[in-house]
Amino acid sequence: MSEENTNGVVPADESANGPAFTIEKIYVKDVSFESPNSPAIFNENVQPDLQLNLNQKVQRLSETAFEVVLGVTLTCKAGDKNAYVAEVQQAGVFGLIGLEPQAIDVLLGTQCPNILFPYVRSMISDLIQAGGFPPFYLQPINFEGLYAETLRQRQAQGEGTSLADSEPAGNA
Q: Which of 10, 27, 108, 166 has CA atoms 20 to 30 A from the CA of 70?
């Protein structure tokens, strides 16, 4: 029988008996907000044009630890001028122990960004409001669908590389 700490989580050293997925750390890796045409842009009376760019990077840190970075860049244009550009890179270190490579790839491509997304959404919203603009709330993103599309693209290109295949940091 394993012991549990006060919040019901089995300590990491006891997870060696079976597969485990753990969140080791969640942190902001990079954040930026620019409003190059303020304050004049506040007087523009045009429909804003929003462009969202989403990306994800995975880096193997050790045999069982991975850093996942979810990056979001939101650009708002008013006419031909940039109203603002908000960029957030939210990161997490995740432990993946005793899992098959396919399962690791699925977790890195779906579950990890799902865990990071609420942090990104909050940070983007806060940045935009702090910049003096109306609130903007990122809509939910289907990371499972994006992962499935990534798999289709890999197969079409004949690539067998998974997200987990990268070399550990410092070993290249």
A: 10
